[in-house]
Amino acid sequence: xxxxxxxxxxxSLITGFLGAGKTTLMRHxxxxxxxxxxxxxxxADGAIGSDTDFLQKCGxxxxxxxxxxxxxxxxxxxxxxxxxLPILEALLDLEHPPEHVVIETSGLALPRSLLKAFGSPTxxxxxxxxxxxxxxxxxxxxxxxxxxxxxxxxxxTVAAKASHHDDPVVAIFEDQLSAADLIVLNKTxxxxxxxxxxxxxxxxxxxxxxxxxxxxxEGKVDPAILLGVGxxxxxxxxxxxxxxxxDGHVFAHDDFERFVIKVPEQSSVEGFLTLxxxxxxxxxxxxxxxxxxxxxxxxxxxxxxxGTRFRHEFDRSLAAGADRMGRIVMIGQKGLKxxxxxxxxxxxx
Length: 349
What we know:
Elements: H1 3-6, E1 9-15, H2 22-32, E2 38-43, E3 69-70, E4 76-80, H3 85-92, E5 100-104, H4 111-114, E6 127-137, H5 138-142, H6 156-163, H7 168-178, E7 182-186, H8 193-204, E8 212-215, H9 223-226, E9 256-263, H10 269-283, E10 287-292, E11 299-306, E12 309-317, E13 326-333, H11 338-347
Helix pairs in contact: 6-7
């Protein structure tokens, strides 16, 4: 790497489909960096991102506003809507700028288009793209979420489909994977050794030959590895300005639907989770996230779902007398109907 680029601030782009575990990975970075001033930027597009009122992205106190927040450990954190370039410029203009910037993209982002921003005249001589880190849900890949067949079958068909954008889910998967310098194969605890090996072989048919694959559970990867990718081919951000407009849109807005549905207080945790799973299965909901109040509980129930797989926890207290209506975000492909989901969640609840 040249002396000029060595003075630049390295930037890592973390991408991955809805529910892959990007936020968990970002939280792990923030909680485990030692002695380094790292800036975390979470990109949450207004049309498809989460509502920061009830979904905190990084999980650290104070990190949920559209401004730069300095955390107790010396790191910086912020969320942005759509364009992360202005916040990147603001970070670089600080009296004490970060030593490394990590940007988490939306789950529906196409990283090849996002990388064009680094060719902007305002930042191209001030940053170097350390690498693109793609987070994959190993179980989802094995189950055929990103193709019409399980991972044990040929992936050539999947890549061909993606290139023609016949299936928007497959198209995004292919774009995120083909741009990767480092692949974090997350949620490997849900598969046996043979299943993981099969998934890795499938990934290799789409990923760049030089991309490294790391197996992980709960996003637990050494930050020193994540922040030291050093993809020399990306040292000059100006190269990205040559990308054609045909490389795709930043977000696949037209191919997906996203709804925020208010749900009443639930009678039980088990009943609500069973309902969410049934709705996700029947209407092919890709991603579910949000919270609900449960009778007899003073804390709200936070839920996260990928397809029909759900996790839950009681995460924060509800003030006495506060509104006990919940909020659930559901994301699916074009054609998903808000009225249908609302009827299924509210009437059935």
